[in-house]
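CORE FACILITY INTAKE
Project code: CF-77B
Contact: R.S. (postdoc)
Sample description: multi-component assembly, two entities in total
Requested service: structural model of the whole complex
Turnaround: standard
Below are the sequence entries exactly as provided by the requester. Do not edit them.
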Amino acid sequence: MSRIGVFVCHCGENISRTVDVEQVAKAAGEIPGVAFSCDYKYMCSDPGQTLLKKAVAEHKLDGVLVAACSPRMHEKTFRKAAEAAGLNPYLCEMANIREHCSWVHEDRDMATAKAKDIVKLMVERVRKGKSLAPITVPVTKRALVIGGGIAGIQAALDIADAGHRVVLVEREPSIGGHMAQLSETFPTLDCSQCIMTPKMVDVANHPNITLFTYSEIEKVDGYIGNFQVTVKHKARSVDESKCTGCGICMTKCPKKKIPNEFDQGHGMRPAIYVPFPQAVPNTPVIDRENCTMFQSGKCGVCAKVCGPGAVDYEQKDTFTVEDVGAIVVATGFKLYTIDRKPEGSPIQGYGEFGYGTIPDIIDGMTFERLASASGPTGGKILRPSDGKEPKQVVFIQCVGSRAREKGISYCSKVCCMYTAKHTMLYHHKVHDGQAYVFFMDARTPGKGYDEFWRRAVEEEEAVYIRGMVSRMYQRGDKIVVMGSDIQVGVQVEIEADLVVLATAVQPQDGADLLAQKLGISYDKYNFYSEAHAKLKPVECATAGIYLAGACQGPKDIPDTVSQASAAAAKVMTLFAKDKLERDPVVAKVNEKYCVGCFACKKVCAYGAIEEKEIRDRQGNLIKKVAYVNPGVCGGCGTCQATCPSKSIELDGYTDEQIMAMIEAL
Amino acid sequence: MTPGKKRLSYSYYPGCSLHASGREYDISTRALFKALNVGLKEVPDWFCCGATPAHNVDELLSLSLCAKNLSLAEEVEGDLAVACAACFSRLKTTQHHLKEDDTKRKQVEVAIDGPAALNKPVKHILEILAREFGLAKLEESVKKPLMGLKVAPYYGCLLTRPPEVPELDDCEDPSIMEDVLRALGAEPVKWSHRMECCGANFTLSRPGVVLKLSNAILESARIAGADCIMVACPLCHGNLDIRQKEIKEAYGAPDSTLFGNIFGSELHGGSAPDQRDLPIFYVTQLAALAMGVASESLGFESVITDPKPLLRDKQLL
């Protein structure tokens, strides 16, 4: 006869509001084999855990069930407490009566009855449970950082400074990301390039950092401590080991009128180019789609003028496999464009703003380039259509953001501040100009932020109009902006020379595909999901993978840098141990019954199943059976459900346990 | 008619305006369909869709009026063709609401004493011309192309909005009118006010609002160089056509603060401001004209802003 203890948690009022926890505890006490049951307000607190430990000792319990929240939340907590009380931690289970019961039901009687059922069947699982020992796996003390913007750069530098090796992979030809494009940064107006480029140089020079630019993640295998990542190095057409960065190829390239992505298409670049003069590495890349040599086979000027002979038209994409123990994902954001809605997309465009057909309606990043000393206008605010200095500029906040009817309900967080900054930059450069801002709210929670915003309004003469813009159209060389001022209750019409839209922050293109390769989860907008919104903000639910920056949600520079350093700290914590203990919930093969059909191998998503030969003493092959590599097994149980001879089982979820649970209902 | 293909045929809901102030829309619709050899059979015993007033007063009433009309239409074969943008909007809105709200659907079915015909396809004339009859065939059928006629296609509020209801075209940047105009040989102009409101039925309660909004529409059509405006709504037609004289009296020369730069110097070299009359056509009038229907049977005599001088000038009469 077993001696199981059942502990029912109130979770403050989260559970007790809809579930009669006392009754649940009482009913549990009547289940045969339950030696002790009670309820308590906060089981996860110190007194709650002490209660559990004391009960194990006093009632000589041989199994523990905590009926509380999801095991994803506190299974570790209670298993630790059970272990401290002398029990094997895997004899402690949780019954989820919060997410699976109290949170989703309203009727108290029915919810209580359901909670009793959940407890009843989980008691059976505990009863049939076995002691398990954790598995230890080695840790490769080398980290992969995906994305070379400020988030990836900060994370890479922190990990490298701690003495660990880092591989930094960037999709574009240079690191720097969006921050390198910015003019001046809020709330201090220091030049973005001046604080960013030294960090880029540090990355290039750091002995612990291997930098792969113009490269992408192809495939991710393995698990925490032991990832094997295949990196695709796109053909640069320039040999990085030979190129000296002299730049003569770029000056001699006959094709010079290609819109420069770095300047948001407002400057021009040649077909062989570095994205911007301060690029790291300072090695050009050939844009094959726009290169005459690649398109028609006639040119070859860059190869002829290159002294060291670095230009290589024959270069192919190459692949390397990198062994790493931890991954930091820092893929950043893109800005929402107001183009016509793409086919099948839930996000609507802005037809009322002309779907981007009016050249002097630009987005915030384009304004950054116009205001930047290194931009296409040399830092002068000149509008794209005719190069004139705009005297009336209208800024519109929340374009795309906080617009449920357009398909995006979240706040993009950075726009209030950067729009205030834009009005200041404009005022500093065009003294007789007037800036207007249409806004819903001014959200300025950050150190020195509200003071900065007030400065824009009170000292820098920006006119803030609370209300949204309904329509814009071109009239002559002006843009008519029709909007409302809800504080005065009137409709407003402004003739603007230039309109700047603070468009929504969205995850990078392909964020979902990368997540699928990494096996991490993402929300409906493709932002990556953290393991816990409050307590695990930089960890993914997938062990060994961490998040930094705007790929997780819109973020400004200070927040991004903080999160990147936090992710780096998590990696260092992981690397502080030589071996990792991992959950022993893995599949095991009963070799006696396995017939070697390898149906399990076909369905295993982790590639954990190998073929093992069984030989007699003379070395004759008797049969082949399946073998589960416990380091790789993800514990999903698919093999168990597939095996026709029932000879593969997941520890902690054996057929016997599951049948007992079903019978208890 | 391609052999083997069934002749296109529709049931037809004209709506009140088309039997009254907008009768030329009705006349020209029938003439056009006849010219295109497309069947059009009026729903017997139809009544008002409730228009704008009903749904502002009593939601159940407004839904029931349309639901009853839809169930009457069910008795006539063919998808339901609607010309008036407001009737089109109300009928589609009713289907949309009742499909989503079971409680309301049941209430309405009690009120109309029968099932609501939620799946009767409701089609706007533009849709029929551009998609079902087809632009290519429309172009082939043209006998008298509207060469040299610069038309400002005016959509107004209801044809495309809200996006989930009419499902006619992109809600803020549609092209269906432009496509039809091109097929007829006319030249659609690019202009700024094709999606703006004309003031609609404030024409009775607050005419000042209508004068202001309709003035902006007429002005921007003139700036774009249009000879005329094409509409698909009798109320828009009324406001833009009937009130043109009043608008000129109220606004006279274009607002100097708004149009000063353009009119004063660059475009007109300081000459007198543009005050041209702009005839307002229904889509069916222009289409029927292009199909060679005699102009006498298109109701041109019953509008205020006389289109005949323009048509004569373009040798379309």
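Facility notes:
- Chain A is about 25% helix and 25% strand.
- The mean pLDDT of chain A is 94.
Invoice: internal transfer
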